[in-house]
Amino acid sequence: MAVAGVIGTELAKGTSPGPVEMGIGGAEAYVLSAAVALPLCFRRRYPLTALLAVSVLFFIAGERVPFAFAGNLVTQACMFMAIYAASAWSRDRRRMKATMVLVFVGMFCWLVYGFVKALQDDTIKGAAQGMLSPYVSFVLLNIALNVLYFFGAYFWGRTAWRTARQRHVLEQQAVELAAQQQANARRAVIDERLRISRELHDVVAHHISSIGVQAGGARRVMDTAPDAAKDALAVIEDSSRTAVNEMRQLLGMLRAADPDLDEEIGVPAIKAPQGGADRLPALVANANGEGLSVGFHQIGHPVDLPQTVSVSVYRIAQEALTNVRRHSTARTAHVTLRYLGESAVEVEVIDDGRPKHAPVGSRLGHVGIRERVSLLGGESEIGPRPVGGFRVRARIPLAPAAVRQKENSNDE
């Protein structure tokens, strides 16, 4: 632009009808023509400073070398670019607007000064062939051109700034959305790990605990009561097979939820029924023996439970009985299933024992119970009873909205 400005000044000099004033040393016009363009090198890093510098040099060139200023379009283009750059690249929008007001007021005051001087010197001549006088026509035409020139550059730059800002906002939103998606994916993985851990703990711990108790009993009576030892070994065999079946069922459920995919990867369909509230009597029957008497009582008219609720009721009772056998001195325990109309179902397991003087378990069973109940929007109570023994109680709502919401969240 500086080189083009020098060339433009030379061409304006060559086309001038009369002698021209070149300024100091005959080179001032060339210097000013180049100098007006040079601040544009910093228009992106320092847009407001570049605008002020170009405006000052623009004014000096117009006063010192009018022929080069009026006839050199490069000088006019430099001022236009400076206004555009300030409007498009300024980060501080308030300072930009203040600078624009300062520059615009200065330029239009200079324009008015030129009108006054032209009127005083009577330099605007014409044939007066239009509706208005030559002077009025000159004033209106120059005002219109300058308004289009200055405000056109400003609004064009502001449009570019808004477009860039919208693009930046969209990029930030895309980054935030990607981060949220990653966080949701990590949360989903953690939730799935917790669910798998809870299911494995509930399925394995009960049967392994039963096997351990029966094996200990068989070892103690192996010499004195071989028949009792055989019975204990039969229970161990049955518990191990049940554990294996439930483990296969659980792994098949976790491996793939799509039947087509199950068939594709060769996983056989799981036909065995999953534990539910209707299987609590069988659970209680299996828990009896080896010094622990377990009773079962059902209160209220049975209702159809959602599968998630039914399985959770079974797992909660299973885990509570496992804890009674492993960590308590209890001799009796009781499981109560309460149907509270259409609103909720409650399962309660109580015993008459105290904690064994042995290393305490991992407490993962209690954590799993609380997690199950919380996911279904229910409430749980786990702790010692005032009259002695221990209580595990869980109440799960059956409200359609709540159940539907929980099932949807599990599906997701």
Automatic annotation (TrEMBL):
EC number from the UniProt entry: 2.7.13.3
Species of origin: Kribbella alba
**Molecular function terms, GO-annotated:** kinase activity
Query: CDD domains per the record?
Result: HATPase_UhpB-NarQ-NarX-like (cd16917)
Task: Indicate the segments forming the Signal transduction histidine kinase subgroup 3 dimerisation and phosphoacceptor domain, all copies.
Answer: 192-257
- Output the SUPFAM superfamilies linked to this UniProt entry: ATPase domain of HSP90 chaperone/DNA topoisomerase II/histidine kinase (SSF55874)
UniProt catalytic activity: ATP + protein L-histidine = ADP + protein N-phospho-L-histidine
Q: Which UniProt keywords apply?
A: ATP-binding, Kinase, Membrane, Nucleotide-binding, Phosphoprotein, Transferase, Transmembrane, Transmembrane helix, Two-component regulatory system
The membrane-spanning stretches of this chain are 46-62, 68-86, 98-116, 136-157
Question: Where would one find the signal peptide in this protein?
Answer: none
For this entry, the protein name equals: histidine kinase
Question: Is-annotated flag, keyword Transmembrane?
Answer: yes
Could you list the residue ranges forming a coiled coil in this record? none
Record domain Histidine kinase/HSP90-like ATPase: where: 310-399
Tell me which InterPro entries the record gives.
HATPase_C_sf, HATPase_dom, Sensor_HK_TwoCompSys, Sig_transdc_His_kin_sub3_dim/P
